[in-house]
Structures are given as C-alpha cells and as structure tokens.
Write a structure and sequence with these properties.
The protein is of the alpha/beta class. The chain has a single domain, classed as Alpha/Beta hydrolase fold, catalytic domain (Rossmann fold, 3-Layer(aba) Sandwich). It has six helices and eight strands; from the N terminus they run E-E-E-H-E-H-H-E-H-E-E-H-E-H. Helix 3 packs across helix 4.
C-alpha cells in the first residue's frame, strides 16, 4: 500500500507530506519523522499504519531535505524551526479531519517523538505516542493532554526519561489515566528503526508496535 506526496497547507510557504488515504470515515494518524528527514523508513511506517486502517500523513518537516549521515542530520535538526513545525503538525491534523477522519492521533520517533508531544499539547489530537522523544524544558506540556504512550529503551542517551515519567505522572493526576512511559530493558535509542541494525531491537520494537496499535484502536477506533 503506497502513498503520494500531498500538499496540506499553503501557510508559511506551504507544506506537504507523504499520505496514504484509506477512505472516508477512517481515523487518521500523523507520523512524525526522525532527525534524518522524510526517508524511506518513515514512509514505510506510514504505510504500516495505513495497512491497519488509518489514513496516515507524514509531514515533510525539512521541506525536501533528508540525509543518512548523522552529522548532517544533527545540522538539519538544529536548523529546524520548531514553531513552524508545530504549526505544520496542527495543519496536518486539521487536514486529516477535513479528509473525513473523525479522530486523529499523532506518533513520532526521536526528534519526531518530541514533536509528537508538542502536538499532543497543541494540535487537538485524540491520542499520542512518542518513541524515544520528549521535549526539553521549557515546553508547553503543562496542560491536560490526550492519552499518551511514551516508549524508551533503558539505555536512552538523548532524552530525559525522568522528565517524561514525571510528566506522565502529572497527566494521571489530571485524570488522564491511560498515559504512561514504557521502558524496554537492554534497548537503546532508535530501537524501533529496523533499517539501523546497530540500534534495532526486534522484541522491543514488536511490543511497542503492538501497544501503539492497541492504544490507537482504543482511542481512535
């Protein structure tokens, strides 16, 4: 099941993303890239959600740029306009609703995981999932967010797991019961990315994927 590049907003110079439309009345998922950009792996994950019955859209937050080199990825991420990216996430959610999706979730990986958390706080989504990503303070997360799952490996070296755990505890105190941080012992950062043999951990990836689908099925339908 393949998708097409689709323009979803004219604002801020326009934005487009890789979209797989599965038909009207189906829930939607916004899929947010790692720091590499809108690479084939991200498109593949977007297609995986479509195969599960979700209209899926992955915004191209680097606007045509991508890389397989860590140094360049670092440069691209440092140059990202996070304010614009957050607006584009909101626009992607609105676009999916306009395409007939009654409920919309957001999921992201690494940098995209941190952005998914910002989307959870600002984009009006119905559920959120972050794979090994959490925004550093200050951030706009001190608000009631939708049910959220956050996945980390025990050997996470880029984002603060304690900060994510404290945030999840705060959300539960606000009454959002189905919010938690899940930690996989022995896994590290990027454990879900099956194109990176040095990082991929099959058991953790499979379990996190199953939990993600269960979370979205519960809250998106």
């Amino acid at each position: 099941m393949s998708g097409t590049m689709t323009k979803f907003t004219e604002a801020d110079g326009g934005a487009e993303g890789y979209m797989v439309h599965v038909g009207g009345g189906k829930p939607g998922v916004v899929v947010l890239q790692e720091w590499w950009g809108l690479v084939p792996h991200v498109k593949d994950v977007t297609e995986r959600f479509a195969k599960q019955g979700y209209t899926a859209l992955s915004p191209d937050l680097y606007h045509g740029q991508s890389t397989v080199e860590a140094e360049e990825a670092q440069h691209l991420m440092e140059g990202l306009d996070w304010g614009r990216a957050t607006k584009e996430i909101k626009a992607a959610v609105a676009y999916l609703r306009g395409q007939g999706c009654p409920k919309v979730g957001v999921v992201g990986f690494c940098m995209g995981g941190a952005l998914a958390m910002l989307g959870a706080a600002t984009a009006g989504v119905d559920a959120a999932v972050s794979f090994y990503g959490f925004p550093p303070p200050p951030n706009p997360l001190d608000t009631k967010c939708p049910p959220t799952k956050i996945f980390f490996g025990s050997d996470e070296g880029f984002f603060s797991v304690p900060d994510a755990q404290a945030w999840a505890e705060g959300q539960r105190a606000r009454g959002v019961a189905d919010t938690e941080v899940v930690i996989y012992e022995g896994a590290g950062h990027a454990f879900f990315n099956d194109t990176r043999a040095e990082a991929y951990v099959q058991d953790a990836a499979r379990d996190a994927w199953a939990k993600t689908l269960a979370h979205f099925k519960k809250h998106l339908g």
